[in-house]
Design a protein that fits this description.
Oligomer: single chain
Radius of gyration: 16 Å
Largest sheet: 4 strands, antiparallel
Strand content: 25-35%
Pfam families: DUF1697 (PF08002)
Protein name: Pyridoxamine 5'-phosphate oxidase
Structural class: alpha+beta
Organism: Mycolicibacter senuensis
Helix content: 25-40%
InterPro entries: DUF1697 (IPR012545)
């Protein structure tokens, strides 16, 4: 059994509201083992003998069937998430700033979002292994260039963003 981190996109942030206990139950019924949610924003740790693509397809189908919404789930091996967090290229704890990791499954979208034009004057962005690292002053997340870009429906199926602190909580 491999350990995976599953990130549900758009859950409990102004659209689809789900109780994490119900999410865990639906994923357990779908055949995953060791299902555990972290915080209330769609972060799930689980185990499966299948590869990431199969885990993603099964999780999306299970959530869509149970909750009736077009579920989008990005799945990464837990050790890959550990390496992504360790590679954060900026000072991770800057007073007055948020540090984020945007997970990106589509290489073309990764290249597009990593372009210097996507960076606002107070934002730092850097591409990583299937991610974009992002840091922005507190209070500017949604108003920054990257924040506004990430809100486009075009990126809904291939991206989701998590705070670096949240990722660290998941890996404990």
């Amino acid at each position: 059994m491999a350990g995976y981190a599953a990130f549900l996109r758009g859950v409990n942030v102004g659209g689809v509201n789900l109780k994490m206990a119900d999410v865990a139950a639906a994923l357990t019924r779908a055949g995953f083992a060791g299902v555990r949610t972290v915080l209330a924003s769609g972060n799930v740790l689980l185990e499966s003998p299948n590869d990431t693509q199969a885990v993603r397809a099964t999780a999306e189908a299970a959530l869509q069937e149970r909750f009736g919404y077009p579920a989008r789930v990005l799945v990464y091996d837990v050790e890959a998430v550990r390496a992504i967090v360790a590679a954060f290229p900026f000072e991770p704890e800057v007073p007055g700033a948020h540090s984020y990791v945007t997970f990106v499954t589509d290489p073309a979208v990764l290249a597009e979002l990593s372009a210097p034009a996507r960076r606002g004057p107070d934002e730092k962005i850097a591409p990583g292994d299937r991610v974009i690292y992002w840091q922005i002053p507190k209070g500017n997340t949604l108003g920054g260039t990257m924040g506004k870009t990430m809100g486009h429906k075009r990126y809904a199926s291939s991206t989701t963003t998590r705070n670096l602190r949240t990722l660290r909580k998941m890996l404990r």
